[in-house]
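TA notes, week 10

Several of you asked for a full example with nothing omitted. So below is the full record: structure tokens for the whole chain, then the designed sequence directly under it. When grading your own attempts, check the secondary structure regions first.
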């Protein structure tokens, strides 16, 4: 059983990832921490609570940082995930509320209480993870692994020609995490651009899972329309679900151990680059994936949901 906390900016593919975690028998989801990115942190928190209620999961949500480590706060663009983060689905107030503890302190405490067992899966900007690393010198040792949806080594960017969105939104935080010496796995665009779901795929999920699959199908319409405007892909990338699947099924990914640094200024800001050998601890960079196996795991598991 994998003890998992997902740090998230829900977000349509975040919703897919969280529902996947709810359906995966080998994952014990201990909580969610929220961050800005696709939406503001406040909306991310509301959406995280709503997803857990839809999944009937009673686990804590800890609200995270409202702005990047050093960059000024920014207004999320609604073009990819919609104003409220779930495409055209209107905002709805969840029944629950986040815990008092802020995200970075929650992560520190949980890593300490589950020493050597807790896997973190950040699928948004890395601000909360960087704050936890900076606040607790033991955090890097306490946490078992950090499996990041983010970055791109050879694939180029998606929010700029050079940068993937999660890294771009807080490059300083990402550089702290990649240079921390923690056991880090980078699930970047090099692999997530190869794992695509189409309108027909979401329709077949919804046919078997009318409630939660139906919710994802509704959200995916907005997401697929955006991908159509990009005109590069037949479907939408399963960015965040791929990172969660890499937590439980690492054998489906081919990795290379490389030190990674992050450009933090100029037009390449947010780009993840190979650092000089020996300049910092290496991380496992995913450069290959059995995309069919990841996609069928995703669809098979979601079909089990109500
Ligand atoms: O670049 C894709 C990533 O940015 C995904 O995590 C998506 O949800 C957005 O956060
Ligand atoms: Ca995300």
């Amino acid at each position: 059983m994998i003890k998992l906390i997902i740090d998230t900016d829900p977000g349509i593919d975040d919703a897919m990832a969280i529902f996947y975690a709810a359906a995966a028998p080998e994952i014990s989801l201990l909580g969610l921490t929220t961050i800005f990115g696709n939406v503001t942190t406040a909306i991310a928190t509301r959406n995280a609570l709503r997803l857990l209620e839809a999944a009937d999961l009673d686990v804590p949500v800890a609200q995270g940082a409202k702005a990047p480590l050093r960059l000024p706060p920014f207004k999320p663009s609604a073009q990819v995930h919609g104003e409220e983060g779930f495409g055209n689905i209107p905002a709805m107030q969840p029944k629950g509320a986040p815990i008092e503890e802020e995200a970075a302190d929650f992560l520190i405490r949980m890593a300490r209480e589950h020493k050597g067992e807790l896997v973190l899966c950040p699928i948004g900007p890395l601000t909360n993870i960087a704050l936890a690393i900076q606040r607790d010198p033991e955090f890097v040792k306490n946490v078992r692994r950090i499996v990041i949806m983010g970055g791109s080594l050879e694939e180029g960017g998606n929010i700029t020609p050079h940068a993937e969105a999660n890294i771009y939104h807080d490059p300083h935080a990402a550089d702290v995490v990649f240079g921390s010496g923690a056991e880090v796995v980078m699930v970047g665009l090099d692999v997530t651009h190869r794992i695509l779901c189409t309108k027909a795929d979401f329709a077949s999920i919804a046919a078997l899972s009318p409630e939660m699959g139906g919710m994802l199908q509704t959200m995916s319409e907005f997401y697929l329309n955006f991908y159509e405007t990009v005109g590069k892909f037949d479907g939408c990338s399963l960015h965040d679900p791929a990172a969660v699947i890499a937590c439980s099924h690492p054998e489906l990914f081919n990795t290379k151990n490389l030190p990674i640094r992050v450009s933090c200024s100029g037009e390449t800001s947010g780009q993840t680059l190979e650092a000089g050998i020996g300049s910092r601890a290496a991380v496992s960079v995913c450069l290959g994936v059995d995309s069919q196996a990841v996609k069928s795991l995703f669809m098979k598991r979601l079909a089990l949901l109500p």
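The two ends are 22 Å apart (CA to CA). Use that as a sanity check on your answer.
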